[in-house]
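We store amino acids, tokens; thus:
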Amino acid sequence: MILPIYIYGLPVLRKVTQDIDPETYPDLDKLIENMFETMYHADGIGFAAPQVGLEDRIFVMDLTPVADDEHPEFKDFKKVFINPHIIERSGEPVALEEGCLSIPGVHEKVTRPDTVRIRYIDENRQEREEVFSGYAARCIQHEYDHLDGILFTDHISPLRKRMVNGKLNALANGKARCSYKVKTAK
């Protein structure tokens, strides 16, 4: 089922999420399926629970749409991260443009470390600890930030923030133009 995507200005996007019990969480597999379906419908590659109004520590990613000759490792990169916790960030800081389904129409350069070590539970309820680098690490950090109430716009310079402030205020006032179903603050 395609769920409405929560847009900038809604309080749930600023809340710190809580770990869940994957064994007792009601309809967890259905939630995961709905999150992937919603993300695909909006042409996203990563999606966190707060973006559908939940304060639960879970996000999904599918990098197969960006797999190409330069990134063949993303060919089957579809993952579920339940109760993720970044243990370490390392590597060179890299600046790349980011966008977000919850902040439509805004794209800005964000600097993030090139590598992350993350501990999480996968969709099969197996505990994992993995190291990701490059674009995968960037996407993981972006989605992980959602779980801590942080948005990519929090990482941009004060000058750039002032430049996009009008767009952010419009979104917070319910003026979101999207090709997908949304829930706005007004």
The first strand starts at residue 5 and ends at 6. The mean pLDDT is 96. The chain is about 25% helix and 30% strand. The chain has one domain: 5-183.
